[in-house]
Amino acid sequence: MNEHVSDPYVHQAKLVGYRSRAAFKLLEANDKFNFLTKHMSVVDLGSAPGSWSQVLSNTLGSNGHIFALDLLEMELIKNVDFLKGDFREQEILDILVKKLGKTSLDLVISDMAPNISGIKSSDQAGIIHLNELALEFAVKWLKPNGCFLVKSFVGEDFDGFVAETRKQFEKVTTFKPKSSRDRSSEIFVFGRNRI
Questions:
Q1: Is 78 a residue of the active site?
Q2: Tell me: the pLDDT tens digits for 117-151?
């Protein structure tokens, strides 16, 4: 609790009106890779409480199409079409696909994570499963040259996931944002230009 209260990114998020400090992870990724532009069509997986969708809405405005999905409820955000449900369930995926219609995506981002058990091997296997589902979705729905950004955890299955991502994108980079806590094993994988 003390770490959260004294966290400069938590204070900054409150100051500028972001729902969580996670907004700065997406902003840092964009500063590094410069992939957010107006007129994009984007899917935000694991969107609640909505800070990544806020960044997207602020950047894309009414020019883009933003679709967000999460297990948890998310308060409405301007220009964001939100769907509450479990991405792992076919029924929810079908609803998302129906919303997309014929829209090809420029970007798929995923901040999904399993409920953390504290058992590192189990948590890592859980997030890799979500990563793989996000990758499979991205490959199916991204335009050629579309981009993919996903949160993962460092662990025994991570290198295998990165190798799979490299088969689908021209360039794949891993990075840990400054806004990610030092003790966290989270790492982000960015794929540019879907093959």
A1: no
A2: 878 888 889 999 999 999 999 999 999 999 999 99
User: Are 83 and 68 contacting, i.e. CB atoms less than 8 angstroms apart?
Assistant: yes
| Token pair for 192 | 């540019």
The full set of domain ranges for the chain reads: 2-194
Looking at domain 2-194, its CATH architecture is 3-Layer(aba) Sandwich (3.40)
Dihedral pair phi/psi, residue 181, rounded to 5°: -65, 140
Q: Which two tokens stand for residue 190?
A: 């960015």
Catalytic residue among 84, 151, 171, 178: 151
Question: pLDDT tens across 54-108, in order?
Answer: 999 999 988 899 999 999 999 999 999 999 999 999 999 999 999 999 989 999 9
User: CA–CA separation, 111 vs 53, rounded Å?
Assistant: 11
